[in-house]
Structure formats: structure tokens, C-alpha cells
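To close the chapter, one final illustration. This time we ask the reader to focus less on the individual chains and more on the assembly as a whole: which components sit near each other, and how the overall shape emerges from the parts.
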Amino acid sequence: MDFGIVELSRLQFAMTAMYHFLFVPLTLGLSIIVAIMETVYVMTNRPIWRQMTKFWATLFGINFVLGVATGITMEFQFGMNWSYYSHYVGDIFGAPLAIEGLMAFFMEATFVGLMFFGWEKLSPVKHLVVTWLVAIGSNFSALWILIANGWMQNPVGSEFNPLTMRMEMTSFFDVVFNPVAQAKFVHTVSAGYVTAAVFVLGVSSWYMLKGRHFELARRSIAVAASFGLASALSVVILGDESGYETTHNQKMKLAAMEAMWDTEPAPASFTLFGIPDQQARETKYAIHIPWVMGLIGTRSLTDQIEGINDLVKGSEERIRNGIVAYDDLLKIHEAKGDVTPEVKAQFEANAGDLGYAYLLKRYVDDPRQATDAQIKMAADDTVPTVWPIFWSFRLMVALGFSFIALMIYFFVIANWKGMQYPRWALRMAVIVIPAPWIAAELGWFTAEFGRQPWTVDGVLPTALSVSHLSVGDLLVTLAGFVAFYTVLFIIEMGLMIKYIKKGPYQDVEITQEWQTRHENRLAGRKNDPLVTMPAE
Amino acid sequence: MILYELFSFDFLRVVWWILLGVLLIGFALTDGFDMGVGALLPFVGKTDVERRVAINTIGPVWEGNQVWFILGGGAIFAAWPPLYAVSFSGFYLAMFLILAALILRPVGFKYRSKRDSAAWRNGWDWALFVGGAVPALVFGVAVGNVLQGVPFELNDMLMPLYPGNFIMKLLGLLNPYALLAGVVSLSMLMMHGAAWLTLKTEGPVQERARAIGSVAGMVAFVTYILAGIWLAFGIKGYQITSVVPANGPSNPLFSTVEHGGSWMQAYADRPWIAIAPILGLAGIALATMGLRAGKEVSTLLWSKLGIFGVISSVGLTMFPFILPSSKQPDASLTVWDSSSSHQTLFVMLVCALIFMPIILAYTAWVYKVLWGKVTVEDVERDSHSVY
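The assembled structure is written out below.
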């Protein structure tokens, strides 16, 4: 196993996925905000809402296209860089990806064209339906990709088949209704909604500071604050649900997030601050809040949360079982399944730990030849590097709570204080625009880095999942992606800023023409010159 | 009884082999004209507004069309995991080239007309050209290589390996036969793009599209015949030499394969498959004549028929092989040993049967709404909202 290839493949995946995830949260949320605005437009017939819809839709489009473009890479990258992973779990993992295409991608991509090109070709209600279908399609795609990801965190509904040397699906229902996936889905889309709400709030606040497009800005702030408040609360609540699921399914990840080296008597305390030391297996300068961790993690006063040291002991045990399974697997495979029932039964008893034997492949080609020292090293490998997880998790949570505060503040002023926003609050809203992206990336990092050393928790180690490429292959594509994506990012930001500065095509004061045009459309007077004029 | 045993394993495998073909053909028929228009763009449009007309004929639909490609990837992953694992990593740098070209395309469509500078727009026009021409060529090159067999191995853990230097592997893909297949694919999709432009435009753009398209059609016709003759006399086929349990586990190493004989044996065994190349040639010939005669709707339909015939001829000739290995023939992937499990194939078939009709229905509705020609006036009038 060439470790350079593993590290380069991980770097490439992390880079392309995190880059893709710069665009996805805004797509998820802004699609819904645009649809809400258009709904108000269709219900009230007031041109300002149409103007808002079209303005935010333009920014949505600039962002959407890069989400689509970088998503192409994601769909094929498993096969390109993670070919053993693809072989090993494709029977389960491929299904949600294909359903994502069938159910979500086709819907959003087919209708997004009409959303931009169909204003003059569709009635207002039909166009509204199209906009909602784009929003629903985008959100469905998040559902299916998180079902796929949820299975990597908590591989339910599947078992290992020794004849095909891979995991195979035993229950589609279990895979779809994986509690980890469901909690992650709502947590992730809510985070997308918060991202879009902060974006709309920030851009509108900037207009207010500049004294431009006041009618558009104040209404947009009202929409963003209400939508954002509900979403910010949902992110935290479902984040807690996600954490609770982690307690049961990914004990090591939870212990790493909390830098909990030793099992504490229940209910465990929460470490607010500390500097985790991986070597010494202790957290220095720790500030503890008693009971909190036990309550959040187990929702009880008596259940224990296992610490890292105890979990490592458990891993060592599972590695030894895994070696037995590995030995039986080779016998079964060699005989093409024609072995005694005893061998089969023994394999099945230990098959759940087969992945742990694969952890040894880093040190020895044949896990059966592993020494005690190597088993010990492999067991230690099941601990991810703690400090990045510990800190990215805390930062994400802090940001999550600060979004609630921000949204409450704007929500109150929008509804009860006559929209008299103080300048400092508007300035703050502009400054925090990047914050939800940071929180989203930190959340992604916590979930995926915390899953290490596995690609599929307890089933397949990351080091074994890669394609047998050469370092040259990987350097070419890594350099290519970095250069290519950097250029695209600069272009995207340039266009985004250009179109924000430009603002909506017309301000509301001169939209009487629109009103006439709208009424003509409703009356079906297609040949009225106002139906197709003026250019917006 | 377990629900998924409603259909036997071998039946589901054949169904998914057909669906794999449906997806590839669906991709070529829809996104194919997008790629064709991209490859024709610098030549059919001499002025900015002419190029915008060409771009706006595909502007509202390319995004949906491209999903055929993405779904193709997802469906191969779900239904043929070993194929997904071996092919995309085996064609690693070629895949990277396709991805880079395909990423350029959406960005080019969306961003090209968002600034007024001529240099900006000209730059994106060439990006759109690359985004159309490169994948169209590389897909053909890939098919040419698959017909010759791909140098991969499977070890005893079924881990795909590809010995050799990465630069040499990329250059190895660019052998003469594969390049010929690349020309077939590029010229065929250019013909298809021209047929689309003939239907959706008028005036100089349409005239140039017809002129270039009919040349492309003739090139496709001749190179397809040449590729067929070369395949019959210059390229060894693959045969399964062991008994194949069509309902057996998906493990390629459980059967033995010989690299020898001729692919054309398939036409002796199953003479009816000759209909595929005949349809391919007829479709291309009729589309070429239609382009010359200035027919609009029928030309596009003939072009679709030609593409359908050409792609299905490859699949039917190779059946049951999907991805033969030249390095370790026993590792070759076939319909019988490289699918998903029985249950996954069943679940995915149910999903496809539910969603495919819905997708086809709303796609048809969108095309209906957008029916009609894109004119210079359209582009100038809606300058802000179109590409």
C-alpha cells in the first residue's frame, strides 16, 4: 500500500468535495427563498416581488451553475480515485446516487432552464410551479446524497458476500431510513437555508447602507430573517439529533469530538475548552461543565459514554476476530463457496469484524501474519487525530448559535420595530456573509475527518479504498483541479460582485409598466407590445 | 417468497444491460446535440449575435440533457459496480480530460454573455468548443479501446490494478483504431448538432450548420464502415471458454476467457443483430441527405436513428462482454459476472420504472414549451435574460 497515493487521493477528494460544498448550501436555500418570493408575487400581483424574484434568481443562477459543474466531478470521482471502495460497497452506495439522478438531478436541471427562459413563455402560476420544482429537486438531491453518506457513517441494511468479495444490500428500507441519514439530511439542508438567509440578509443590508434599492432590500430582509430564524433553530436541533445518533453508531467519532480519553462515570462532563494531546492521550487546560455531555449524548443520567482508551481496547479485540474472518474468507473464495458449513458459520460469526483485519494491511500484506505489536498499532490507528475534530466541532457550534442570535435580532426589528435597522447591525450583517460557509465546511470536516481511518465505518479502511494509480496520475489531476477550480472561483466571485453591484434591472418607482404588462398577461392579451417589452 | 425473486437474476442482468444502453443512447441523443453545437459554434456563428443564437438554442435544455451523463455514472455505479470501479480508474487521465471539458461547458453557457468584452466572449466560445468537441472525441476513443480490450488486472481480492507508466497508459489509449472510433463519434455528434441547429435556427447560422453538418455526416458514414471492416479483419475478439452460470455470483474471476477469434462471430450466432449497423448507416445517410435538402424535423429524427443504430451495434457485437481485459482476459467484465446483487438490481429497476416515465413526460413538456426557432431578434430583445 503506497501511502502517498492514499494521502493524495484523500487530499483531492477533500478539496473537490469542500469546493463543491461552497455552492451547494446556497443553492439549497436560495432556491427556496426565490420560490417564496415568487409565491408572494403570484399571490399579490405586486411587481416588486417579481423584481425581487428575478434579482435573487440571477444570483442563484451564477451560483447554481458551479454547483452543477463541480458536482460532475463528484459523481465520477469514486470510480476514478476510489475504485476498491466502488467495488466493495457499490452494491449499496451506488443505489442512492442513481436515485439522486433519477429523482432529483433530472428535476432541478430540466426545470432550471425554464425558470430562466420561461418568463415570457409560461403563465405566472406555471412559472411558479417550475420554480418550486427546481427548489424541490435541489433539496431531494441533498436527501439522497446524505442517505449515501449516512450509510458510510452507519452501514446498515447490508452484509459481506464472500463470493463476490464485497458488501451487498440486504434491506433497501434500512438503508433509506437510516436514522443517521435522516438526521443529517435535515441538519444539512437547514444549514443551507441559513447560508442563503445570511446571504440575502447581508446583500440587502449592504443596499440599505448604500441607500439603494430600498424597497427590494427591506422586503428581502423580512423574508430572510423569518426563514433564517426557523432554519437556524432547526440546524441546532437536528445537529443535536445527529450527535445523539453518533453516540450510538460512531462512538469513536463522538469521543474524538469531545477529546474524551477515558470513560467517565455517567453523566459525563462537557469540555468547553482544552488542548488535546494525542501522544499523552490527555486534554490540557481543560474547562469542564459537569453533566452536560452525558445529557446531550445519551439523554440520560445513567448511560455511560465510552472514552477513547476503552474503545481502542475494543478495536484490538475486533482486529483479532477479523483475522479469523479473513482466513475463512480466503478458504471460501478459493473453493468458490464449496466449503464445510463449519467454515461458513465461523466466517459469518466474525464477518462483521473483517474490516478490522484490513486495518493491518498497512503494516503487513497478509493480516494472518500480523504480530501483536502490529495489531496494537492498527488498533491505535482507529483513533482519528483529535484536535482538529475537537476544535472544528466547537467552532461550528458557536457559529450555529450566533446565527440564531443574528436572526432573532433582525426578525424582531423587521416585525415590531418598523424596520429601523441601526447601521452597526447592517454592517455586521454584511461582515458575517462568509460565516455560514465556514460553519458548513467545519461541519463537513467534523463528520468526515472524524470517520477516519474508515471510508465506511468499521467496514472498509480508507487506506484500502483507493485506486491503484501512480503518484504521477494524482499529481496531474490534483494540480489540474486546483488550477481549474481557482480560476472558476475567481470568475464566479467577480460575476457575483458585479451583479450585486448592478442590482435589480429596474427600481420599483418605474414599474408601472410592469403592472400593466402583468395585467395584460393575466387577461391573455398576448399581442400587446407590453407583454414582450421592455427588456428586464 | 422474497419480492425480488419475482424476476430471475439473469433476466435482471439483461434488463440492466439494456438500460445501460438506453442511458448511453439517451445521453448521445440529448446531450449529443449540445456537444455537437459546441463543436460547431466557432464555425456556424461569425458574429457575436449569431453565436448567441446558436448557444440559446441549447441554452434552456443543456442542463437537463447533461443529467443523462450524470445518471449514466450513477446507474453504472448502482447496477455495474465493477465496471464503475475498473473503467473510470483505468481511463483515469482520459476521464479527467472529459470532466474538465464538461465542467467548462456549463460555466461557459452561463457566464459567456454576462460581460460585454469581446475577448471575454471569444474566450468562452473556445471553451464551449472544447467542452463539446473533446468529450465527443474521447467517448469514441474510449469505445475504440473497449473493443480492443483494456489492460487491467484483478487481484485475488478483486482489486483492480493497471500496471505501467501513467503517461504511457494515456498515450496507449490514443492508438489508430481508437482514434478512428473517436472520429466516428465526433463527426456523428457534429452531424446531430447541425440537425438540431437546422431545426432551431434560420438564416446564415442554419445555412452554415447544414453545410458543415452534411460533410460531418459523410465522414461519419465512411469512418463507421471503415471501423467495421477493421474490427472484422484487424481486431481479435473475446470468448468465454468456461461454463457461465448466468445466475451466479458477480465475480469475474470465476469464469475463463480467451482473447481470440473475431467479434464478428456474434453476427453468425445472432444474425438479427445486423439490424443495428444497418439502422446506423441508414440513419446517418438519411440525415445527411436531409441536411442537404434543408429538411428540419425529419433530419433530426434520422440523425437520432443513426446514433441509436451505431451505439447499439457496439453493445450487441460485444454481448455478453462489457469491458474485456487484454492483460488478464479472465478478469474481463461480462453481463453475467459484473452486476450488482439480485436485490439491488431489482430495487433499482423498480426505481427506474417509477421515475423514467415521469422524467420523459416533463422533459417532453419542457421541449414543447420551448418549441420554435431562436432568432436574432429574440436574442437582442431579451438580452438580459438569455445567454
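DSSP finds 20 helices and six strands in chain A. Residues 308-381 of chain A form one domain. With these observations in hand, you are ready for the problems at the end of the chapter.
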